[in-house]
Amino acid sequence: MTTTAPDTPRKARRPRAPGRGVPLALLAPALVGLAFLLVPLLALVVRAPWRDLPEQLTSPAVWDALRLSLVCATTATALSLVVGVPLAWLLARTDFPGRSLVRALVTLPLVLPPVVGGVALLLALGRNGIVGRLLDEWFGVTLPFTTAGVVLAETFVALPFLVISVEGTLRAADPRFEEAAATLGASRFTAFRRVTLPLIAPGVAAGAVLAWARALGEFGATITFAGNFPGRTQTMPLAVYLALQNDPAAAIALSLVLLAVSVAVLAGLRDRWTRAV
Amino acid sequence: MIRSARRAAGPAALALLTALGLTACSPSSSPASGDGGPSGTVTVFAAASLEESFTALGERFEKEHPGTEVTFNFNGSDSLAAGIVGGAPADVFAAASPATMKRVTDEKLTAGDPVTFARNRLAIATAPGNPHGVGSLRDLAAAGLKVVLCDETVPCGAAARKALTAAGVEVTPASYEQDVKSALTKVRLDEADAAVVYRTDVRAAGDKVDGVDFPEAAQAVNDYPIALLEHAPNASAARAFVALVTSPEGQKVLGKAGFLAP
């Protein structure tokens, strides 16, 4: 609670215009919500084994897991951008039969328990999966138990966040800019690239940050589809889960590392990219 | 402005604490009704490998004691122990290893000493028909064979490590799975060629996998302890359930599932 107090005067100053400040009916539930989110994190910090922390941080296994997490989450975000932005554009700017159904299907991984997502990926892309079998036959490629498998699992759960975020921004953006570009002779793709994309850049960045964060914390689909092998598929959440089995103190320390890194990255990105949002 | 924020913070925190308190004491079981026989709900935290046999024993218990209901939480023993230490409202804990039970007894959370009620030994699970001809632990080291083991933080992984060391075999698995069931699932989905699991898991999977016994398993037999918990909400019915598990009748069910007698 005391952590929110220093913020209050600054926040209160800004929206002075309409009324006499923040109504209690909004402030009270807002503070409950904030406390609900922050108290568990605070508990992690309070109960962290600070004395053992240096030892945890110098363990090469931790750095392996952290490096793998960052590489995989970033690659998954890049993949999501490459296919997600066009998909969002398709949903927002074109009209085709069954579009609302497609939109619902795109968001399906959001409600699917990630472990089920992992099993679904195995059935599709596993050694014996409906697509994976062909990959194995034609190219000798098997995805489960590989780092590429981690990236795919993370992309599967992160992509919907990006698509939803970008599609929302596209709908809010004025299509007349694109139409104006078209009347000036730009092709639809050029208009997208030169006009639409810069217009929705903040929304794309916000979606990318959301997707990255989701990918970084991904556990269920990853451990189910890619398994758990240190240095190859053991990301931080997997390392935390397994440490929790017999050494909760180590698990807390690992979680703190993950939290610190994500806060640093998200805060840094927020300042640089998404100030406008 | 600041004052109003402060004033709101008090009730807000109170509301949050009340909400948390309420979920913590949600009624999961009703106490015994006092007229002798067990009644009400018994909550049993049991190792994942006990799922088939304990489910059968639970049904038998409900039939023998009308008015009772046995609810199970099957999970990795370590997660269950962590839950009990964290205050989960359970009546009985059945673990897949003495080490996990020790975490509960160390906190003095059991009523009396745990009793070993079953033992389990390892086996190699392969696809039906054993297409890669796995016949021993040594065969798992063959190049190109995809093997999954349990992670060493869970009992089946620790046992597998013990057996592999006893055999002097070095196996690089494709993955260290988080529990025995997910190791078995990898074989059932044909993502892995072989997994070191419990014999009971092989038996529970029926004709979906083949089991290969190996002599080194004798050096890595797991004891399964069971205990009544100190803060059991329904101690009398829980005691009756533990009695059923350790009775000859219970032992027969466990034996049929592939467990060894204690």
Automatic annotation (TrEMBL), chain A:
<keyword id="KW-0812">Transmembrane</keyword>
<keyword id="KW-0472">Membrane</keyword>
<feature type="transmembrane region" description="Helical">
    <location>
        <begin position="104"/>
        <end position="125"/>
    </location>
</feature>
<feature type="transmembrane region" description="Helical">
    <location>
        <begin position="145"/>
        <end position="166"/>
    </location>
</feature>
<feature type="transmembrane region" description="Helical">
    <location>
        <begin position="249"/>
        <end position="269"/>
    </location>
</feature>
<dbReference type="InterPro" id="IPR035906">
    <property type="entry name" value="MetI-like_sf"/>
</dbReference>
<protein>
    <recommendedName>
        <fullName>Molybdenum transport system permease</fullName>
    </recommendedName>
</protein>
<comment type="similarity">
    <text>Belongs to the binding-protein-dependent transport system permease family. CysTW subfamily.</text>
</comment>
<feature type="transmembrane region" description="Helical">
    <location>
        <begin position="66"/>
        <end position="92"/>
    </location>
</feature>
<keyword id="KW-0500">Molybdenum</keyword>
<keyword id="KW-1003">Cell membrane</keyword>
<dbReference type="Pfam" id="PF00528">
    <property type="entry name" value="BPD_transp_1"/>
</dbReference>
<comment type="function">
    <text>Part of the binding-protein-dependent transport system for molybdenum; probably responsible for the translocation of the substrate across the membrane.</text>
</comment>
<feature type="transmembrane region" description="Helical">
    <location>
        <begin position="195"/>
        <end position="213"/>
    </location>
</feature>
<feature type="domain" description="ABC transmembrane type-1">
    <location>
        <begin position="66"/>
        <end position="267"/>
    </location>
</feature>
<keyword id="KW-0813">Transport</keyword>
<keyword id="KW-1133">Transmembrane helix</keyword>
<dbReference type="InterPro" id="IPR011867">
    <property type="entry name" value="ModB_ABC"/>
</dbReference>
<dbReference type="InterPro" id="IPR000515">
    <property type="entry name" value="MetI-like"/>
</dbReference>
<feature type="transmembrane region" description="Helical">
    <location>
        <begin position="21"/>
        <end position="46"/>
    </location>
</feature>
<dbReference type="InterPro" id="IPR006469">
    <property type="entry name" value="NifC_ABC_porter"/>
</dbReference>
Automatic annotation (TrEMBL), chain B:
<comment type="similarity">
    <text>Belongs to the bacterial solute-binding protein ModA family.</text>
</comment>
<dbReference type="InterPro" id="IPR005950">
    <property type="entry name" value="ModA"/>
</dbReference>
<dbReference type="InterPro" id="IPR050682">
    <property type="entry name" value="ModA/WtpA"/>
</dbReference>
<protein>
    <submittedName>
        <fullName>Molybdate ABC transporter substrate-binding protein</fullName>
    </submittedName>
</protein>
<keyword id="KW-0732">Signal</keyword>
<feature type="signal peptide">
    <location>
        <begin position="1"/>
        <end position="24"/>
    </location>
</feature>
<dbReference type="Pfam" id="PF13531">
    <property type="entry name" value="SBP_bac_11"/>
</dbReference>
<keyword id="KW-0479">Metal-binding</keyword>
